[in-house]
Amino acid sequence: MPTLTLARQNHPLSHPDRQLDLIDRGKPFEQSLADSGRWPLRAGGVSVLQVNVGKLCNQTCAHCHVDAGPDRREIMTAETAELCLDVLARHETPTLDITGGAPELNPNFRRLVTRGRELGRHVIDRCNLTILLVPGFADLPEFLAAQRVEVVASLPCYLMENVDKQRGAGVFDKSIEALRRLNAVGYGTDLPLTLVYNPVGPSLPPAQAKLESAYREQLRSRFGIEFSRLFTITNMPISRFLDDLVRSGKLEAYMDKLILAYNPAAVDGLMCRTTLSVGWDGRLYDCDFNQMLDLEVTGAVQHIRDFDLGRLTGRRIVTRQHCYGCTAGAGSSCGGSIVQQ
User: Fold this and answer.
1) Does residue 293 lie within any of the structural domains?
2) Per the structure, how many domains does the chain have?
3) In this structure, are residues 320 and 295 in contact, taking their beta carbons and an 8 Å threshold?
4) Cis, peptide link before residue 44, omega less than 30° from 0
5) Which of 20, 52, 138, 328 lies deepest, with the highest CB count within 10 Å?
6) Helix (H, G, I), strand (E, B), or coil: what is residue 154?
7) Residue 224: inside a domain, yes or no?
8) Is the Cβ–Cβ distance between 41 and 316 less than 8 Å?
9) In this structure, is residue 250 part of a structural domain?
């Protein structure tokens, strides 16, 4: 298990207010929205219920915006998980997106998957890959395949040195073995297997389509691995990545880069427009990034037990300077780049 010593929950930068103060620089995001005729930013309906089941993880990654790790104890209870499933049963929300931490470590993970599929929902498992090699989880590929779950798997590069630098020594080799196990049960051919790239340092992702071609050639020729598609995601200036930016003296330059790369064309496709994020304790957020900064949704509906689609639809989305990370260049979301390049 990786043992990187990075920002943890008791690190000063892990406090949301401190993080927000650090990135509060440059042209306000709201002003950029207004200048491009997109203020106020409002949500549509809820087509994706993204459920963060906790911060417990078998890895400690340098870029992790959740600050997840093996010693985190924030775990979604069975009661809160059932509240999420009740929302899916009562509303025509097409997609259940399960994330963490390593979501599979939550004891309610399989219940969420099986019930979500029984309700006819598309279910996504945001997987770190190495969890498939942890004792007690070896049957996960077969379970996920039987439920026809889409696996969205983190693989920040096709080169070992870059992956291990970001995610811990030995993670690349374990990830390759996990991908082979997923391929063996039909992922990448019959079943959807999406890989996720994010930059190692303070730079924007390259063009998604071009990078996908490079990933496909490298993984196929070197390891015989197949996958369905690649998402590129910009590193958000929060939590551990923010800590790295501060320690390396690159925060100001990175924020300037994001602000200067603001792309109005990316705004309409922002994930917060159609996604509702549920925290491990049931609180509601416009996105997973806002969740980690403790920026709850506006209005009276702030917990999953009080879910009211009518009151959530059209709500004003809570924005701060980190939102530039989703609108820089081709844009960035849980579904990869927003604008085609």
Assistant:
1) yes
2) 1
3) yes
4) no
5) 52
6) strand
7) yes
8) yes
9) yes
What number is the average pLDDT over the span 208-232? 97
Q: How confident is the model at residue 71 (pLDDT cuts 50, 70, 90)?
A: confident
pLDDT in tens, 104-124: 999 999 999 999 999 999 999
pTM of the complete model: 0.94
Tokens of 272: 């917060």
Task: Give me the percent of the chain exceeding a pLDDT of 90.
Answer: 81
CA dist 83 → 87, 168, 259, 296, 306 (Å)? 6, 35, 38, 18, 9
- Going from the C-alpha of 319 to that of each of 20, 65, 151, 163, the distances in angstroms are 11, 17, 29, 31
Whether residue 148 lies inside any domain: the answer is yes
Crossing angle of helices 109-118 and 78-90, in 10° steps, is 10
Spatial strand order in the sheet of 275-278: 229-232, 193-197, 150-154, 122-127, 95-99, 48-52, 275-278, 284-285
CATH number of domain containing 22: 3.20.20.70
Amino acid of residue 231 = F
